[in-house]
């Protein structure tokens, strides 16, 4: 499957990411929240009958290899080595204290036979499958209740062969919610690095109810018309580090979530301590997103050094009536965007509901959003900030933002604002009057 057409420098960035080592001296990083463990015990998928011919089904080999890792419990854990070749398999579960290592030229490829794909229950913070009522198909590579797990290697590939799932979605023949490519649930101390992820059926990498997660030096690819193929979605998780990666998909590149309406409110687990830096990518949707499922709350998100090309929305903070929860202390800085439909969007009317039982009086609280050092070229509309009537967005602080439009006369106002207060400093084109009042500058002075 071919990549979307990208500028030469974007293609070069893929090459750089794929050739980078695990660490770069002197580079600012948050990856130290999870120590890299060296496994003395090593086994190969070929020891269990694995065949990398692209035709043989290797489900039994993966199952037996991981069973051995789980039950032998070698001191320091075990590394499962995947040599060069294409290993077709059904979905499989990981276990604690293991490394899944893909050699250069290794491909773990999902079968396109969906008839036997296992089902699991809905996430409690969602109350049902995200697309369909009831349960959901388990992720291609899955982990539940795990700790000390690494997925890494020499830039081998995990390929979800998602087009069969995308077609079911388009034809409305899905019975349950599509599977993610990789999902960790209730897990901690997870590292995902130096792997290419391709053609996910649904969201690509989904850590949910997790803590201490590092996702670094990954490349995530899916066609721009592939539905809901979000790149990385930290969900009701804490201490997540996302760095040095290239993402080109059919939906948001990185989206921070925390549950859906009444179910997310009841579960009450926020996403917090999320760091995102040095991400380059392209998508018809958002580059850096918060939401729209934020009912458990999202706080303390920091994103910097982001490069976005051919985007729908550069920076998108999104919620809705019925979500409840909070979005606070979000900082995004040093962003370059080019050929973007809308540069900045902060909105209280985005996203659907799981059912009719959501509480229309559960209003989100959005405050303390700081955007600074944003430069855009060929931006069709600079931005919009539209809060909720009975819960205005406060402390919206914009500084040093230059969003240059396409040549020719502008047919619409550069900014649209409602139910919002905050401050703006050195913003071009000048934003709405709600952010231009000097009386609000004090509340933003610590941020801008």
TrEMBL record:
Name one molecular function that GO assigns to this entry: polygalacturonase activity
Chief place where the protein resides: secreted
DNA-binding among keywords:
no
The secretion signal range is 1-26
Q: Name one Pfam family in it.
A: Glyco_hydro_28
Q: Which GO terms describe its biological process?
A: carbohydrate metabolic process
Say if the entry is tagged with keyword Signal. Answer: yes
Per UniProt, which keywords does this protein have?
A: Cell wall, Glycosidase, Hydrolase, Secreted, Signal
Q: Which family does it belong to?
A: Belongs to the glycosyl hydrolase 28 family.
Under which name does UniProt file this protein? Pectate lyase superfamily protein domain-containing protein
Native source organism of the sequence: Jatropha curcas (Barbados nut)
Lineage of source species = Eukaryota, Viridiplantae, Streptophyta, Embryophyta, Tracheophyta
